[in-house]
Specification:
Blueprint lengths: L2 H17 L6 H12 L7 H5 L1 H11 L1 H10 L4 H30 L5 H20 L14 H11 L9 H11 L4 H27 L5 H32 L2 H21 L1
């Protein structure tokens, strides 16, 4: 393991934390940057496993609130409803992720052109969604109807395609079904925890035999950087979205996707 590889792992971890919770697709950014850096890792496990750092970022920022919900479970129906809602939202992606894991990792993760096109198309859709005159009916992420939680989970399945964005799919689905921007973004944080923890556990199980000590060190570096940058995003995203909406992220997606296509055309 060279110092250059460690720097690459740290840089990719930084990108993971900065992009995981905004609707620009962290996986697409990691795969494209890794492609142009020539960063190789067994089974494409690095991109999934460093997400644990971003999970820790959410847990750290929301620790007091999560603890309050956990302590209220025995006596508070609202707390139990929220936990059931998160489980319902998590289940569709868990089932689809297990069934299509090998196809996603071996085909979609290895298709940079598809990733770039998906970034651009997703940016156009996000811009259209941000311009719609939607009338929110739900403004509290912990008090959505159970049916809404499940439907958001179905939307999250779209993010199995790199470039779609897990947060973008969940936020977009929530907005279309009556949630306001702030609560939609906040629920994407809560849903990220079981979704990303599940992806981490399953990917580790699938790749444990091919990961060596050097890979573990690189993953640890990426994990730490992901957690640090993730905390910054989680602390600032809700206020940013409330003020500026999602148009800035839409433009970023279009720029990155276009630059990626140009880079692939020039460099291969």
């Amino acid at each position: 393991m060279t110092s250059e590889t460690i720097i690459q792992a740290a840089f990719l971890g930084l990108i993971e934390g900065l992009t995981e919770f905004i609707p620009v697709s962290s996986t697409a950014h990691l795969l494209l940057v890794g492609h142009f850096l020539g960063f190789e890792n067994p089974g494409r496990a690095f991109e999934v496993l460093i997400q644990l750092g971003a999970i820790f970022a959410v847990v750290g920022v929301y620790f007091t609130r999560l603890l309050r919900i956990a302590l209220a479970l025995p006596s508070d129906p609202k707390a139990r409803k929220f936990v059931i809602g998160v489980v319902l939202a998590f289940l569709p992606a868990a089932v689809v992720g297990v069934l299509l894991h090998d196809f996603i990792k071996s085909v979609l993760f290895e298709s940079p052109v598809v990733i770039c096109v998906t970034l651009i198309v997703g940016g156009l859709l996000l811009m259209w969604l941000d311009s719609m005159d939607l009338r929110p009916r739900y403004t509290e992420a912990t008090d959505y109807p159970l049916s809404l939680y499940f439907k958001i989970g179905v939307f999250q399945c779209l993010a199995m395609v790199p470039g779609v964005s897990r947060s973008g799919a969940t936020i977009g689905g929530a907005l279309l079904m009556g949630a306001d921007k702030r609560s939609a973004a906040e629920f994407s944080f809560f849903l990220a925890m079981p979704t990303m923890a599940g992806a981490f556990a399953y990917d580790l199980y699938k790749n444990i035999d091919v990961l060596g000590a050097e890979d573990a060190k690189l993953i640890a570096v990426g994990f730490v950087m992901s957690m640090i940058s993730g905390v910054i995003v989680v602390r600032t995203l809700l206020d940013f979205v409330s003020r500026h909406g999602f148009a800035p992220f839409a433009w970023w997606r279009i720029i990155v996707g276009s630059a990626g296509l140009a880079g692939l055309w020039v460099y291969g």
